[in-house]
Design goal:
The protein has 252 residues and is of the alpha/beta class. It has 10 helices and 10 strands. The strands form 2 sheets. Strands 6-7-8-3-9-10 form a 6-stranded mixed beta sheet, with helices on both faces.
């Protein structure tokens, strides 16, 4: 589904991502891990179009999307979950998800402005679909609650709901359980599995290794902007290189 060839990003003299090769197969969950500053978020932003690479290529479903803008990448089917801080805090839970449909409108803007019958029909369909997403993700009872009143865990789930509203084929999850309690974490793990069962392909950046090990089919490890290794959870867990990257090399 996704192929990255020698992707590189420079910020002045800093090489944040250095000739990374990566492939993501359809319907799998891939973990992207590494110490702080390893280049994980930068790699996400190169894939989703928020950053342009210095060099290298990104292919999605066989199409070269290198340098595409974020909204064009989203139209093709790649989207990223929203963090709690980017929610519309004063809007209802349902309205937050509804906003995720803004790029899917087929009705012309002036018709939506004038609230024509065709525009209202499309809006009703989107709101119905948004409620189905909330039901699927377990937030339907909170549909009318303002986002700012939600618990941290529910805000994180709402961010994923907003990403699902774009109907992605490839979903990028950036630290989906950060700051969650153990119970909230277990809930998010089950929801991510449910999303995969619906046929979505998922890439997860996460520091909680228990989450990564329990969720992922394959794990890619970055260190200082380079791909250190990739393999099954067991292979990564037993790797001396990965242990050294996280814990440092013991002095003899």
């Amino acid at each position: 589904m996704l192929k990255v060839n020698k992707l590189t990003k420079h910020f002045g003299g800093l090489v944040a991502v250095n000739e990374v090769d990566l492939h993501i197969d359809s319907s799998e969950i891939v973990g992207l891990i590494g110490p702080n500053g390893a280049g994980k978020s930068t790699l996400f932003n190169l894939i989703n179009g928020f950053l342009k690479p210095t060099s290298g290529e990104v292919f999605f479903e066989g199409m070269d999307i290198t340098g595409f803008k974020a909204h064009d990448v989203s139209h093709l089917g790649i989207d990223q979950s929203f963090q709690a801080s980017t929610l519309f805090q004063r809007l209802s839970v349902l309205d937050n998800v509804f906003i995720g449909y803004h790029m899917r409108y087929k009705t012309k803007y002036w018709k939506r402005l004038l609230r024509t019958p065709s525009a209202l029909k499309e809006e009703r369909a989107f709101r119905k679909d948004a409620l189905e997403i909330l039901t699927f993700m377990g937030l339907q009872k909170l549909r009318d609650e303002q986002a700012e009143n939600l618990s941290h865990g529910h805000q994180k789930i709402l961010g994923v709901c907003m990403a699902l509203a774009t109907k992605p084929k490839l979903l990028l999850l950036d630290e989906p359980v950060a700051g969650m309690s153990p119970t909230e974490t277990e809930t998010m793990i089950e929801l991510i599995r449910k999303i995969q069962e619906k046929g979505l392909t998922i890439v997860v950046v996460e520091h909680d290794m228990k989450v990564i090990m329990s969720l992922c089919d394959r794990i890619v490890v970055l260190n200082y902007g380079r791909k250190l290794m990739e393999g099954s959870p067991n292979e990564v867990l037993k790797s001396d290189e990965v242990i050294e990257a996280y814990l440092g090399k013991a002095e003899i």
